[in-house]
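Lecture 7, part 2: worked example. A protein chain together with iron/sulfur cluster.
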Amino acid sequence: MAKPPSDAALIARYDGRVPRYTSYPTAPHFSAAIGADVYAQWLEAIPAGAAFSLYLHVPFCDRLCLYCGCNTAVVRGEAPKRAYAGHLLEEINMVADRLGRRARVTHVHWGGGTPTALPPDCLTGIMEHVRRRFDVVPDAEIAVELDPSRLDTPALEALARMGINRASLGVQDFDARVQQTIGREQSFAETADAARRLRQIGARSLNLDLIYGLPLQTEDSVAHTARLALRLGADRVSVFGYAHVPWMKKHQALIQDEMLPDAAARFAQTGIIRRILEEEGGYEPVGLDHFALPDDSMARAARTGGLHRGFQGYTTDAAPVLIGLGASAIGTLPQGYAQNESSAAAYNAAIARGRFAVSRGVALSDDDRVRRSVIESIMCGGNFVIPPELRQAASGLAQFAEDGLVLWDGESVTVTERGRLFVRNIAALFDAYLQHHTAAPRHATAM
Ligand SMILES: C[S@@+](CC[C@H](N)C(=O)[O-])C[C@H]1O[C@@H](n2cnc3c(N)ncnc32)[C@H](O)[C@@H]1O
Ligand code: SF4
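Predicted complex, written out as structure tokens:
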């Protein structure tokens, strides 16, 4: 048997720019063919009884971190935040009116930006309104993304009243020099305090976000951050590779390319963080970039084939309908994807006119559905049979099998432990849009 290739050889072969496959087709292939009218028809056709998830996007922050790739802006005054919150209430009404019923909701996810940048009474008011217009089941997951250094007592009290039971804390890196360079200062003490207080108000599950591949990070510095993160006792940890896309996020241009670790250094950094989380922290790897304690629902889902991938990354949420609310939010409906206007101004204007703010999306073809299911299974590290219509595309799996990244017998495929870091590249084999577009959209690097 041939000797397995070295890490360096794998990095050289697979360090292309490939999508993260939080959807298929991916967002660059959405078009203006899906607008407010199509969205309204899609909503009306959703079968009664379907479980819903809601995603509420808050595009505001109190600080702008230089690395940030999210759709957000620093907004200081309260007036624009209150106006936006009013439009979220209105959009909730519009969706519920179209559905014509109080649809059953099993998950609510508040993302951003930083949701607590909204005034506390706006947060509680919106959540009350969600419960009024939807049937939020008693054991629903109510999750929120938080910046630990922007979490004061009024915000915590609001989160408690909202019934938040899951929280995700942005950490990124604890090294003071790295933090200065990326414009995100945050002490370990304030992060630990935020974690403790969130547990007190009923967050039964905590997630931490770490990033590797940032300026000035070294193997030693990320190891130190990972060990500090272990002390926070989170149930889950996400480990993202820094996506440097200054052509899309202008503020990232302040991070000069020369300051960034190269592909080999990034690979080594993620390897060290992984080892520490698994060997010293007892976390189990989940998909490409998540880790969860063995009795956490995500670790269980990964073991039993119940893991899913959506716009917020990996999830245990199996609801067939995701309603996106707010600027840039993307909904996943049985018929396809629908994305709201990206800018808060355009979103506000559409809702103020009494129209849905959907401006782009894609209707799923039968071929899209087959490929989407295969791509999601690969991203979730699954073991499954390739459907006959994709056997030709699957011939490309031979190279991945030779490299020890998958087990492939011509019918079924299993992603190996070594293949976990290359799932984006494996999934790309089945992406018809990537193959057919010569002027492909630019993505962040795979490693
Ligand atoms: C909406 S933010 C989290 C909540 C909060 N705003 C905060 O920063 O703590 C979502 C996460 O996306 C990740 N993220 C943001 N920009 C990124 C980038 N360019 N590359 C990789 N991950 C990024 C960070 O880990 C961040 O915690
Ligand atoms: S990382 Fe979080 S706090 Fe920083 S700018 Fe992005 S969304 Fe805002």
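The chain has a mean pLDDT of 94. The two ends are 27 Å apart (CA to CA). Keep this in mind for problem set question 3.
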